[in-house]
Amino acid sequence: MQKIKIQQDIEYFEGWSDRNGYWLVTGSVAKSGRICKKSDIDLICITRHTVYIYTESCYINGILYQIVFMPFYKLSDILAKDIMSMGKIYVNMIENAIPLFPGKPPWLSSLKAYISKMKSIMHITEDEHITYSTDRILELCRELKDDRNDRMIIAADLFNVMLRFAANCPNASSKHLGRKIKDNPIALKIRQSYEDTVISHDYKTLLTSAKELIQPFITKACNTTTGISFNIPTGDSVILYIPIRNMRQESFRNILTELERHCGKHRHYTFYISYNQALECGTYLYIDTMNSDSSRLIESLFRCHKELMQTCIKQDIKVIFPYHTAFDTGYYFGGKIIFRSLVRSFCKLSDFISKIADKDTLVYGICLCRQFDKGIANGKQLLTGYMESITLDAVDPNGIYNIRQAQYACKEWERHYDICGNRCAKKMLPHDTGFDTIINETTEYIKSINEKDIVFPDITYIGYKKDYLTKNIMDHMFSTLCLGQQEKYAAVYYYLNSCK
Q: Left, alpha or beta for 376 (phi > 0: left; psi -120 to 50: alpha)?
């Protein structure tokens, strides 16, 4: 009776979203199967009618409904980002969810299996993060005892690594980290020992704190009961993250070039992520270590980082590695097998772009649209859908608009591009053998991918996965061109307008 009652109440939400198979009940009602007088009802609606997560609350027949609307075409990104977070709010909501309407939709089981697989991957990644952190803390402790080094710089680096380790926030900004350590007694003790060190120049207290912090994780055995191994794990990649928005400044370029030099024979490429992504805003250096020992590479990068440390501090540039992320698991590309097949193209593209002027990157973005339009059967339709999917991120990087305001802002924004943008579209480069070949290899590979081999949640119509994968690959190639959200939007907008 109660379940039917909820279904009847859903009629009030007509017009808010599509309702065919995408409504889920979660929270206490889903767990207990009962509705108490004081219960509110938590609902999830996975919908095509929104491009970002937002919530609505309303009273109907004396019951409070809390509704979370999720865009299904960004669901993989949302879940991957949430799995890396402390609270795992959305992941837990979906894991506990049951269908609102009769029958168990097959996509829900697939979605829960996808979450389970992502969690197992993240457990391995978290273990590796602890391994790297303990190794890094021990190394800094050894250096802090060495009179030949600048102790204060090393102590500051040690303090930074220890705080993130204690708070379990390896990639948090300083502002976010400050909030996390307020109620963390271990982190507060570390902060106090660092303050004492700065005042007295006596490093013994800081060293003692560091050793106490990592002591529970040190073992002579290969593995502890938690699955944490105290040696450098053998992975197939290393990722460096540099949280900088202006990647075109000369000082940053010099640091990045020096880091790339230490990659040796390993294939590598850089890409830039702007706002509202599953990864944080900044520049990434992806290094492919497949079928090779990454320990020497890590040591070489550490040495390079130490040499660059004073320059980084003066320029306020932070280098984080090995970076804690699920990106290299391939969740964004429908699985690791597909991602591994694409790495070569990304490396070629990055190498090509490193040799051109920054002012031409947007023009090459337009050329990328041209090649995808020609190389993919429904190219223009995909480009249009991609442009619509990034519109809100480009217009509203801080996510403060509601849907109505965003629609108005988009119209104003398009007017701006119509006025100043067509000049750029006319500059579209002639067919360039090197660039076009790289993109053509990628589109040929996309055409060869079988839909059933793409590891995305099965929540919509057949053919959706490949379209979604194609958009993600195209988006990442834009990122390898070092274009931000607004520049990505502009490239597609100019190209589509030039085709009219």
A: beta
Quick check: 44 and 62 in contact, CB under 8 A?
Answer: no
Query: What pLDDT was estimated at residue 478?
Result: 94
- Those residues with Cβ within 8 angstroms of residue 474's Cβ, 6 or more apart along the chain or in another chain: 368, 372, 382, 386
278: which 2 tokens? Answer: 């599953």
SS3 content of the chain, % helix, strand, coil (to 5): 60, 10, 30
Q: Name every residue whose Cβ is closer than 8 Å to that of residue 132 and which is 6 or more positions away in sequence.
A: 232, 322
Of 107-116, 161-170, 425-434, which range is least confident? 425-434
Contact assessment for residue 48 and residue 72, using Cβ atoms and an 8 Å cutoff? yes
- Residue whose pair of structure tokens reads 């490396």 in the numeric block: 347
* Burial (CB count <10 Å: 0-12, 13-18, 19+), residue 215: exposed
Digit-coded pLDDT (tens) for 408-419: 767 777 776 666
Distance CA 493, CA 485 (A): 12
Contacts of 434 (CB under 8 A, 6+ apart): 352
pLDDT tens for residues 207-256?
A: 888 888 877 766 543 333 332 223 334 467 888 888 876 666 777 888 88
Backbone angles phi, psi at 23, to 5 degrees: -95, 130
Mean pLDDT of the chain: 76
Task: Find the Cα–Cα–Cα–Cα dihedral 459, 444, 441, 373, rounded to 10°.
Answer: -80
Amino acid code (one letter) for 89: I
Q: Which residues have a Cβ under 8 Å from the Cβ of 301 and sit 6 or more positions away?
A: 238, 240, 259, 262, 321
Helix (H) or strand (E) holding 487: helix 485-498
Which value, in Å, is the radius of gyration of the alpha carbons in the chain?
25
Distance CA 344, CA 350 (A): 10
Supply the DSSP string of 112-152, one letter for each residue: HHHHHHHHHHHHHHHHHHHHHHHHHHHHHHHHHT-TTS-HH
pLDDT at site 477: 95
- The residues, any chain, with a CB within 8 Å of residue 133's CB and separated by 6 or more, are 161, 164, 165, 170, 214
H or E stretch at 310: helix 295-315
Alpha-carbon gap, residue 409 to 415, rounded angstroms: 10
Q: What is the pTM of this model?
A: 0.65
DSSP 47: E
For position 4, what pLDDT does the model report? 42
